[in-house]
Design a protein that fits this description.
Number of strands: 0
Largest sheet: none
Oligomer: single chain
Strand content: under 5%
Helix content: over 70%
Distance between the termini: 55 Å
Order of helices and strands: H
Radius of gyration: 17 Å
Number of domains: 1
Amino acid sequence: MSTRATTASRQTGFAGETVRALASTLLLLGLIGDRRVR
């Protein structure tokens, strides 16, 4: 049971980090696009 819980927590943590990285990248791209348009 403990091993299953640790695996689940690891997967959720990895997913959270991936989502955070994608969000930050999208924000940076949006800022660069705004500057280019202006």
